């Protein structure tokens, strides 16, 4: 049974952990992951931001690493991928203005493929109009966007995640163990279902 081919849509000032940790974890578990950013090519980088919870009323932000993209957004076709990952950080705020990104996100929902979004990734889901009637976690400040898009906001612990069918979401990077475990369970269930149908 071949491992899933996963698309990660990211951009400048994506959250550092929320990009690097799932990218490396999924690769280490045998999945193929293509990280792309509109307007950039394979081999180019996006700047990351480190968001920490240090006792302030919201997260603090510091400059992170340069994350190397391994595929070119202009060359990919969403139809060629089995699943989608959307990291948080500040990138979703501007990526949601890109109509090609919106179309790609919508494809995964229309085809009922697995989607994992974390933190501010819900901004992209809201803009794509795919949350109506769906349970979705996000960074708490994104709750209004989830609800205005017709979603049901999951008010869960910062280190927890929630699955609604093929959609797996979490509030922030402390949820990585739960978020990635649930996402990989959905990926494997989809692969098994596809293999049984073949």
TrEMBL record:
Descriptive protein name: Protease I
Protein origin, superkingdom: Bacteria
Organism: Rhizobium hainanense
Pfam families per UniProt: DJ-1_PfpI (PF01965)
Keywords: Hydrolase, Protease
Residue span, DJ-1/PfpI domain: 5-184
Family: Belongs to the peptidase C56 family.
GO biological process: proteolysis
GO terms for MF: peptidase activity
Coiled coil: none
């Amino acid at each position: 049974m071949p491992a899933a081919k996963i698309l990660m849509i990211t951009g400048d000032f994506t959250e550092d952990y929320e990009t690097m940790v799932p990218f490396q974890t999924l690769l280490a578990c045998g999945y193929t992951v293509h990280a792309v950013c509109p307007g950039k090519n394979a081999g180019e980088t996006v700047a990351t931001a480190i968001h920490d919870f240090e006792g302030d009323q919201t997260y603090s932000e510091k400059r992170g690493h340069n994350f190397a993209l391994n595929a070119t957004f202009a060359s990919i076709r969403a139809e060629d991928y089995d699943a989608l990952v959307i990291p948080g950080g500040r990138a979703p705020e501007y990526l949601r203005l890109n109509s090609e990104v919106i179309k790609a996100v919508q494809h995964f929902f229309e085809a009922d493929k697995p989607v994992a979004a974390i933190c501010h990734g819900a901004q992209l889901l809201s803009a794509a109009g795919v949350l109506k009637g769906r349970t979705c976690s996000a960074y708490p400040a994104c709750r209004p966007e989830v609800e205005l898009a017709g979603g049901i906001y999951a008010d869960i612990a910062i280190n927890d995640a929630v699955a609604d069918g093929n959609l797996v979401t979490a509030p922030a990077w402390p949820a990585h163990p739960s978020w990635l475990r649930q996402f990989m369970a959905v990926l494997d269930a989809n692969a098994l279902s596809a293999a049984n149908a073949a």
